[in-house]
């Protein structure tokens, strides 16, 4: 395992991932599972957020506790499937700002094409967490990170549900400074660049558009 890749393993996560993979899971349940998995992952992705001492008074006495300090978060979903991961993250980090990056893949060349980018104006000062359920060939995440860097982002992590070695290698080849969090590294890609065993088209399953 590469040092900037974190594979998050937990019985709850593994159980929910299996339900997510099941082709008989409805769109409604799929959305809820993505929500729950994103919330569980957000816990791990934000593990190193800085904290500072804060003096408070309990009903019993004065004490010093820890509070989050300084570093604000921006969640940036890659549209459209990445949007399914935002709500779960916001339930843990409600003050995060949300940017959007629009990329779609050319079905023939598989290359991503940029069509939208709207980010918080102070993106350079934030921990940027890019979300996309699937890291297949790596082209979309590679290009999304380039877009973020071109607009000033310097502290970037990616939160992925299902990844492949190919996708991870492609992203880290161009962006060795970023950290990738995932809950599975699957076997590989089929001839249409879908992840195997994967979970199918995450966007279609989230939004019921198949
Ligand atoms: N995007 C998806 O939604 N699914 C895959 O398997 C690969 C890319």
UniProtKB/TrEMBL annotation:
Allosterically activated by GTP. Its EC number is 2.4.2.9. Keywords: Allosteric enzyme, Glycosyltransferase, GTP-binding, Magnesium, Nucleotide-binding, Transferase. Its cofactor is Mg(2+). 5-phospho-alpha-D-ribose 1-diphosphate binds at residues 80, 105, 132-140, 201. CDD domains: PRTases_typeI. It catalyses: UMP + diphosphate = 5-phospho-alpha-D-ribose 1-diphosphate + uracil. GO terms for molecular function: GTP binding; magnesium ion binding; uracil phosphoribosyltransferase activity. Pathway: Pyrimidine metabolism; UMP biosynthesis via salvage pathway; UMP from uracil: step 1/1. It comes from the Bacteria. One of its GO terms (biological process) is UMP salvage. Binds 1 Mg(2+) ion per subunit. The magnesium is bound as Mg-PRPP. Residues 8-209 form the Phosphoribosyltransferase domain. GO terms for cellular component: cytoplasm. Pfam families: UPRTase. Uracil binds at residues 195, 200-202. The keyword Flavoprotein does not apply. Belongs to the UPRTase family. Catalyzes the conversion of uracil and 5-phospho-alpha-D-ribose 1-diphosphate (PRPP) to UMP and diphosphate. This is Uracil phosphoribosyltransferase. It comes from Dethiosulfatibacter aminovorans DSM 17477. The gene is upp.
């Amino acid at each position: 395992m590469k040092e900037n890749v974190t594979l998050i393993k937990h019985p709850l996560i593994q159980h929910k991932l299996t339900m997510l993979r099941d082709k008989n899971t409805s769109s409604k349940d799929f959305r809820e599972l993505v929500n729950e998995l994103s919330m569980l992952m957000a816990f791990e992705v934000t593990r190193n957020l800085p904290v500072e001492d804060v003096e408070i008074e309990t009903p019993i006495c004065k004490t010093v506790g820890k509070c989050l300090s300084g570093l604000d978060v921006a969640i940036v979903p890659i549209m459209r499937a990445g949007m399914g991961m935002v709500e779960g993250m916001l339930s843990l980090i409600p003050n995060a700002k949300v940017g959007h990056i629009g990329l779609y893949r050319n079905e023939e060349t598989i290359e991503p094409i940029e069509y939208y980018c709207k980010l918080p104006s102070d993106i350079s000062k934030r921990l940027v967490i890019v979300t996309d359920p699937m890291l297949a060939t790596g082209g979309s995440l590679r290009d999304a990170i380039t877009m973020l860097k071109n607009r000033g982002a310097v502290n970037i992590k990616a939160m992925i549900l299902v990844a492949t070695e190919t996708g991870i290698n492609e992203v880290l080849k161009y962006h060795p400074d970023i950290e990738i969090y995932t809950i599975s590294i699957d076997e590989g890609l089929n001839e249409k660049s879908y992840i195997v065993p994967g979970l199918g088209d995450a966007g279609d399953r989230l939004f019921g558009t198949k």
